[in-house]
Amino acid sequence: MTALLVIDNLSKRFGGLAAVQDVSFEVKECEILGLIGPNGAGKSTLFNLINGVLKPDTGRVVFRGADITGLAPYLVAHSGLARTHQIVQPLGAMTVRDNCTVGACFGRENLPLSQARQVAEQAAVFVGLGDRLDMPASQLTVAGKKRLELARVLAAQPTLLLLDEVLAGLNPTEIERMIEVIRNICESGMTILMIEHLMQAIMTLSHRIVVLNTGQKLAEGPPSKVANDPVVIEAYLGDPDLAAEFVGALA
Amino acid sequence: MLDAGTILRRPFFWIVAAIIAAFAITPSIGQNVELREDLLLAAVYITLASNLNLILGYAGYVNFGSIVFFGLGGYFTVYFVSVLRWNLVAASLVGGIAVSVLAFVFGLGILRLRGAYFALATIGVNEAVQAFVTNFGPWGGGTGIYLSTELFMPLGGPAKALWIIYYALVGIMGLSLYLSFFIKISKFGLGLLAISGNEDAAAILGVPTPRYKAMVYCISAFLPAIAGGLYFFKSAFIQPSDAFDLNLSTEAIVTAMLGGQGTVIGPALGAYLYEELRGWLLTSDTFANFQLVISGALLLVIVLFAPGGLMGWLYRQWPTLKKVLE
Amino acid sequence: MTTMIGLFASLVDGLLVGSVYGLAAMGISLIWGVMDVINLTHGAMIVAGMFSLYLLVDTLGVPVYLTLPPIFIGGLIVGIALYWIAVHHMIGQPPLMSLLSTFAVNLVLIGLGTAKWGTVLFNVPVSLPGASIGRYTFPGTHIAAALLTAAIAFLLYLFLFHTRPGKAVRAVSGNREAAELVGIPTTRMLAFAFGLGVALACVSGMLIGTLFPFTVLSGDAYQLKSFVVTVLGGLGNPAGALIGGIAIGLFEGLTAPFIPVNWTLVFEFVLFVVVLIAFPGGLLSLRLPRRAG
C-alpha cells in the first residue's frame, strides 16, 4: 500500500521546550493509524504541524506526493486533508446545516453552494445529526458538537482525516456509536490518523499505532506489538492510570 | 447556480425594487425638493451602512474608518471633474475603482490584524489619509476644492443636475442592497460568515481567509466611493474635515448595529430610522446639539443589551420572517 | 552652531512634552494590560481633565498645580463608575465589544461636552519662570509638566510593585483565575485598575491644559496620539508607553523645525498602522505580544 502521508523528521521548539523532536512515520492509504502518548507528548502539536497551523523548525510533511510543509491551513484543506479539534470549534451562530455546508464548500471538492448543501446534509445525517440540522451549533450538547466537528470535516470529503481526541468527554454509549461511525468512514475509503486517550477504543480501531513521548517517537507497529513493547510500557508507568489501562487493554 | 428564476422568486428582490421605486417616485411627484434632500441623505446613510455591513456584519471586522472610502471617492471625482474636465459618470466610476484598488492594497496590510487591533488600524488609515489630503496641494489642501456652476451644465444646469444625482444615488443605494443580498446567499458570503464565527476554524475548514477578507474590504469600498463622488459633486464643495469625518463612520456603525448587523435589510432599516430621527433632532431646538449623545446612547444600549439589533430581535420573535427576508 | 543648539533645544522640549504624551498613554496601556480592554473613553477623559483644570482655576481660584490631586481622585471615581456602566458586562467577551461600548460612552460624553461648551477654545494661562540656555527658553510649564509626569510615573511604579493593592492588580492582570483562587476580589481590582487608567488620562489632560489651549474636541487628537504611543511601546506595557511618549515627543522635536506640523501627523499615523502590523508587541517588545482578536 502506498503512503498517503509522510512525516519526515519533523521538529518544533517553543523557546526552550522541544515539543516535537525528529518525528518520522507514514500513514498508509485506507488504514487507521492511532497516535497515542502521555499528556504533553506533542500529539496535538504534531497535528498543528501537519495542517499548517504551526510551521515546523525542521522536517517535511508530504501528502499524496506533494510537499505541504508549512502551507497555510486553508490550502492544506484544499489538498484533501481535514482535521477535527480536541476543544470543539463550532461556528456558533450558524446552524448545523450551515456549519457542514462550509466544510463541503471549501474542502477538497470546492463545490458550488447548491451541491455543497446536499453533501452537507448527508454528512450530518451520517453522524446522526439529521434531526438537528437547523439548530444553531451553540445549542448542541457536547456530544452533538463533537459530532458536528466530525460531520463538518466529512462534508469536505477529504482523503485523509485527522481526528483529535474525538471520543473525549463522551459517555460509553456515545463512544460506541462514534467508534461505529469511524469504522464506517474508514470502510468508505478514507484514511484516518487519530489521537486518542481511550486505550481500548484506539487499540481496537487502529490498524497500526505510533507512540509519542516528550516529543519523540517511541514505537510504531500493530497494536499488539506496541502494547507489549517494554519501552512503551515504561513510558506509561510514569503515568499509573494509563499503565493500568494498558494492562486492561492487553487482557 | 443562481438563475433569473430563483432570484425573481425571492421576496427580497421585490422589496428592494419597491424601496427604490418609493425613493425615486415620491419626491418626483410635485418636484418636492425638501423631501428629495431628506431622502438623499437617507440614501447615503443606507449606502454607507449596507456596505459597512459586508465587512462588519458578515465578516465580523469592525471598520471604524469606513468613511475614508466615501471621502476619497469624493475627492477623486471632484478632482477628475474640475481639473481634468471629465464627465460625472466617468469620474465617479473611475473614482470608485481607484478607491477599491487602494482599499485592496491597504486591506492586504491591515487585515492581517484581528479584532480590536484591526479596528484601531482603520481609524489610523482614515486619519492618515485625512492628514495627507490636508497637505496635498493639488487637492486643495486644507481649504478644499470648490466646483463652479458651469460644471453642472453638461447635466442640464444645477437644478436638473440635482435631480439626476439624486436618482443616481438612489440607484447606488439599490445596488448596495442587492449586493448585500447576493453576497449573503453566495458561497463567498458563507465563507465570510464562517470567518466571523471563528476565523481559525474557518481557515482550517478551507475558507481562503486572507483573500476573502481583502476582497470584502475592497468590495465594501466601491459603492460608498461612488456615492461620495456624487454627493460631494452635488455639494459643489469638498474639504478634508467633511470628507473624512469620523462621525459619519460612527453613524454607519451605529445604524448598521441598530438595524441588525449581519442581516441583509437590518442596516438599511437602521440607517433610515436613524436618519429620520437625526433630521427631527436637528430641527428641534432642544436637541440640535445632542446628535452625538443620541448616537452614543443608542450604540451603548445595543452593544450591552441587543447586539443583534432590531432585525436580530425580530427574527428571534418570528423566525419565518427570516426565511422570507434573507 | 546655532542650528545645533536650536535642534537640541527642540529635542529637549520634545522630550518634556513627550513625557506627558507618555503619561496619557500609560492610562490606556494599564487598562489594556490588566483587562484586555481598549478604553475609547480616553479622549473624553483627557478633555475632562482639561476642563476640570479650567473650572477649578477659573471659578474656584485653585492654584494651577494644586488641581492635580483632586483631578486624579475625580478621575479615579469617574473611572470606576465607567467600569460598571460600560466595561463590566464586556469582560469575558472579545475586546471588540468593550471597544464599542467605551466608544459609545465617549460619544455621549463628547456630545454632552459640545452641547455645553461648543467648540470654543479655552486657555488656562500659567505663568512659571522657565529655564534659559542662550537664546532658547524652556517654558516653565513644560518643565513642571515633565517633572510631575516623572513623579506620577514613579508613584505608579511604587504602587504596582510595592503595595498590596498594587500587587493584587498585577496578579489579576497576569492570571485572573489564579488571583481569584488566592482570594483577591478580582472585580473590585478590575474596577480600581480601570479607575486608575482613567485618572491617569485626566491628569495628563490637566497637564496638557497647562501647556496648550484646548477645545472639547481636543481629546480625540490626544487619544489618537496616545494610541500611537501605546502601540509603539506595546499595549499592556506602561513603562513602554512612557518611553514611547518620549520617543514621539523627540520625533516631533526633531522634525518641528523642518517639517510643517501636519506632515508629522501623517507620519505618526502611518507609523501607527505599520507598527500594529509588523510589531504587535510594540517596538520595544519587552513582553509577549498579546493577541487582540
Question: What would you say this structure looks like, in words?
Answer:
The complex is a heterotrimer of chains A (251), B (326) and C (293). By secondary structure, chain A is an alpha/beta fold. In chain A, the strands form two sheets. In chain A, strands 6-7-8-3-9-10 form a six-stranded mixed beta sheet, with helices on both faces. Chain A has a four-stranded antiparallel beta sheet with strand order 2-1-4-5, covered by helices on one side. In chain A, helix 4 packs across helix 5 and helix 9 runs antiparallel to helix 10. The two termini of chain A are 31 Å apart. The model of chain A has no long low-confidence stretch (mean pLDDT 87). In chain A, 40% of the residues lie in helices and 25% in strands. In chain B, helix 12 crosses helix 14. With 326 residues, chain B is mainly alpha-helical. The radius of gyration of chain B is 19 Å and the shape is globular. Chain B has a single domain, classed as ABC transporter involved in vitamin B12 uptake, BtuC (Orthogonal Bundle), CATH 1.10.3470. Chain B has a two-stranded antiparallel sheet with strand order 1-2. Chain C has a domain of 184 residues. The longest helix of chain C has 34 residues. In chain C, a hairpin with a 2-residue loop joins strand 1 and strand 2. In chain C, helix 2 crosses helix 8, helix 2 crosses helix 9 and helix 6 packs across helix 8. With 293 residues, chain C is an all-alpha fold. The chains are: A alpha/beta (251), B mainly alpha (326), C mainly alpha (293). The interface between B and C is large, with 42 and 43 residues.
Structural class of the secondary structure composition of chain B? mainly alpha
CATH architectural type of the largest domain in chain A? 3-Layer(aba) Sandwich
Q: Over the alpha carbons, how many angstroms does the gyration radius of chain A reach?
A: 18 Å
Task: Report the top-level CATH class of the largest domain in chain A.
Answer: Alpha Beta
Number of helices of chain B: 16
Shape of chain A: globular
**Looking at the chains present, what oligomeric state does this protein adopt?**
heterotrimer
Number of helices of chain A: 10
CATH topology of chain B: ABC transporter involved in vitamin B12 uptake, BtuC
Largest sheet of chain A: 6 strands, mixed
Pairing-aware structural class of the strands and helices of chain A? alpha/beta
**What is the radius of gyration of chain B computed over CA atoms, rounded to a whole number of angstroms?**
19 Å
Helix content of chain A: 40-55%
Tell me about the biggest sheet of chain B? Answer: 2 strands, antiparallel
- How many separate domains of chain B? 1
